[in-house]
């Protein structure tokens, strides 16, 4: 969706098995857990070794500039502004 999970944003709190509601008309994305459960979660982090290995190979380096300049989903997720 966007690099926000890698930056520790809300997507980094989503866990396996979570029910997610996507409403295209309202423009919302919600994880259907209680507020107290959500607040208690710690954002997942990518281990340094995995982060390093994901930066190279399979053509990823070709799009590194686009990933570096991509805006968050809230900002429109564009990379050319």
Q: Within the largest sheet, what's the order of strands?
A: 1-2
- Shape type: globular
Please report the number of helical segments.
3
Order of helices and strands: EEHHH
- Gyration radius (Cα, Å) is 15 Å
Beta-strand proportion: 5-15%
- Helix content estimate: 10-25%
How many distinct folded domains? 1
Mean pLDDT: 81
Poorly predicted sequence stretches spanning 5 or more consecutive residues: none
- Report the major sheet: 2 strands, antiparallel
Q: Give the strand tally.
A: 2
Distance between the termini: 18 Å
Query: Which structural class best describes the helix and strand composition?
Result: alpha+beta
In short:
With 81 residues, the protein is an alpha+beta fold. Helices cover 23% and strands 10% of the residues.
């Amino acid at each position: 969706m966007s690099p926000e999970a890698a930056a520790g944003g809300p997507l980094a709190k989503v866990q396996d098995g979570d029910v997610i509601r996507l409403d295209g008309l309202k423009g919302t994305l919600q994880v259907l857990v209680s507020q107290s459960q959500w607040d208690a979660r710690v954002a997942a982090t990518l281990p340094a070794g995995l982060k390093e290995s994901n930066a190279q190979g399979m053509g990823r380096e070709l799009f590194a500039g686009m990933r570096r300049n991509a805006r968050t989903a809230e900002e429109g997720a564009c990379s050319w502004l």
